[in-house]
Amino acid sequence: MLGHVNKAFTKEDETSAPPMVPARAPLPAGTPNYVTARGLEKLKTELRELDGERARLALLAAGVDRAQALAHLAARKSALEERLAGATLVDATKQPRDEVRFGANVDVRTASGASRTYRIVGVDEAEPAAGLVAFISPIARALLGRSAGESVSVRTPRGEEELEIVGIAYGEPADARTS
């Protein structure tokens, strides 16, 4: 059986497998895809970048690698277009100024006296390390609907935390405008 090669050592037709596309941030079924103006622009920029990437790939010689890359881009673009089609822009200028709502910048103080600022944003815009928290996150859910002076208890990776809301503002924070 010299001519027989174990299937484990052969290269499968790589174009037959569907491309693995990283999942977008999850959005619970039935939950609107709220976005800030910044978040919507971020999604549109990502779509333009995918189109540019596809145009560059189209110039490459045909082959398995190119076909796989194009399939991967098409899958990513489809997921992004689906997310954009369901996007609901929330106008922060129409939010009540005395209550935490979507798009708010919320200044809080911990029980130990440490200050933090969170901005309530859409799932695609969330960057917890930068203080941008998705409106569906536990911390955002604890803050939403509250006013300055109120305290909330929230479970975080650090454990149960008591946060006092010390300020609420709307509009893009200075660091978000430059990024």
> Portion of residues in helices?
25-40%
Hey, roughly how much beta strand do the residues contain? Answer: 15-25%
**Overall tally of structural domains:** 2
CATH architecture of the largest domain: Roll
The CATH class designation of the largest domain is: Alpha Beta
Low-pLDDT stretches are 1-15, 174-179
Task: Give descriptors for this structure.
alpha/beta, Chitinase A, domain 3, five-stranded mixed sheet, two-stranded parallel ribbon, 31% helix, elongated, 23% strand, 179 residues, 4 helices, disordered C terminus
Word description of this protein:
- The protein is of the alpha/beta class and 179 residues long.
- The chain has two domains: 32-89; 92-171, Chitinase A, domain 3.
- It is 31% helix and 23% strand.
- The protein has four helices and seven strands, in the order βααββββαββα.
- It has helices spanning 37-58, 64-85, 138-143, 174-178; strands at residues 33-35, 87-89, 104-110, 115-121, 132-134, 151-156, 159-170.
- The strands form two sheets. It has a five-stranded mixed β-sheet with strand order 5-4-3-7-6.
- Helix 1 (37-58) runs antiparallel to helix 2.
- It is elongated, with a radius of gyration of 22 Å.
- The termini are far apart.
- Mean pLDDT is 84; it is low at 1-15 and 174-179.
Can you summarize this structure?
By secondary structure, the chain is of the alpha/beta class. It has helices spanning 37-58, 64-85, 138-143, 174-178; strands at 33-35, 87-89, 104-110, 115-121, 132-134, 151-156, 159-170. The protein folds into two domains: 32-89; 92-171, Transcription elongation factor, GreA/GreB, C-terminal domain (Chitinase A, domain 3), CATH 3.10.50.
